[in-house]
From TrEMBL:
Family under the similarity heading: Belongs to the ATPase alpha/beta chains family.
Keyword annotations from UniProtKB, A to Z: ATP synthesis, ATP-binding, CF(1), Ion transport, Membrane, Nucleotide-binding, Translocase, Transport
Domain ATP synthase A/B type C-terminal: 246-310
Localization per Swiss-Prot or TrEMBL: Membrane
PROSITE patterns: ATPASE_ALPHA_BETA (PS00152)
GO molecular function: ATP binding; proton-transporting ATP synthase activity, rotational mechanism
Name listed for the protein in its UniProt record: ATP synthase A/B type C-terminal domain-containing protein
Source species, domain of life: Bacteria
Xref: Gene3D superfamilies: Bovine Mitochondrial F1-atpase, Atp Synthase Beta Chain, Chain D, domain 3, P-loop containing nucleotide triphosphate hydrolases
Pfam family, one: ATP-synt_VA_C
Native species: Bacillus timonensis
GO cellular component, one term: proton-transporting ATP synthase complex
Amino acid sequence: MEDIRLNVSLLRRRVPNLTTAARSVGLRPATVSNLCTGKIPVGRAEVRTLVALADLAECSLDELLIRGEKIEMIETGIKTLDVFAPLAKGGTVGLVARPGMGQLVVLAELFHRLRNNDFATVLLLPEGDHPEVNDILDEVQIQVRTIKEAYEEIAKLGKTKEVAFAADRSHVITGEIPTLQEKLHSIGVDSVTTILVDLKGDVVDEDVPFGPLETLWQFDADLTARHQFPAVNPVYSTSSVLEGAHLDQTHFTIQQRAKKLLRRYRELRSLVTVHGLEKLPETEVQTYKRGERLEAYLTQPFYVAEAFTGKKGETISLQDTLQDIRKILDGSTDSNEVSELAYIGKLH
C-alpha cells in the first residue's frame, strides 16, 4: 500500500464540507484530514474508513485511491516549508493561523517567489473590510472580486501558465472554491495551485477547516511571540508530498530526525522555563541546544520584508537546507552561537 494515496482533488470536489460529512458517518474529521495530507498513510487506514469516504464521494474505491502517481512539489526556497510541508503542485494548501501570526506575509512571499518562477498570481479579494490585504497586492498580478471573474481569468491563464490562486476561507464555506475547482477540472485546467487563508482566524479551532487539503501549514503562537519567522510549526505542518513513496529517502530521513529533535526540544523548553537549563541532564542539554539552533536556522529573511527588517531576502535550495539541517543534527554547529544561525540563508 506504500504507493497508494487518497484522491484528494476528487474528495474536495465531491465532499466540500468534509467536517460535517465525516461526522455524519462516524468518522473523526482529524483522521480524515491526516489521510488527505499524508500524515497517516493510506495503508494504515481502516477499510471501513476508506469505504465510508468512497460512499461520501459517491465513487468506487478504485476512484478514491490513486496508485503509483508521484506528487510533484513546488520548491519555494523557504526552508521550513520545503523540508517539513512542501507545496504540492496543482494541490490546495490551507494556512491555519490567528491574525498577527504572519500568514499574509507568507502568502505575499510565496506569490513573490512563484512569480519569479513564471507563475501567474491571482487573488480573490475577500468580502468586507480587510485593510491588511492591501499589503500583499504588489505581489498580485490579477485581482478578482467574484468567483465568476476568478474562473474566467484562470481558465484563460491555465491553458498556458501555472497559476497560484489565493482566496479567503469565507469562499470555502459558501462552497464557491470547490465549485470553481470542479469547473476548472472539467475543462482540463489542472495547473492551479490554490492557497487558502483565514483572515478571521476561526480555522485554528476546527478539525478540517478548509475541507480536503494536500498541504497544511500550521502557524504557531509561541514562534510568533518569540519573533521566529516564518512562524510555521515544522512539527504540525504536513503535506501529501511527504508520503514515503513520493519523497526522496534522504529528505525523509533528515526530516524525521529534525521533527524528533524539535518535538523533544519543545518539551524541554517548558522545563527550562520553569527550572533553568542547569536542572537538565547533560544529554538533554545537548538536545535542547541543538533544537534551539535548528529552530533559529529555520527562520529566514523574506524579500517582501526587506524594507522592514533591513535584511536581504534569501532563497535556499532544498538540498542545501537538508545538508545544513544534517550538520545541526550531527553537532557540527555546536560551537556556534544561536544568534549566528538566526535569519541567515545557508550555513557558512
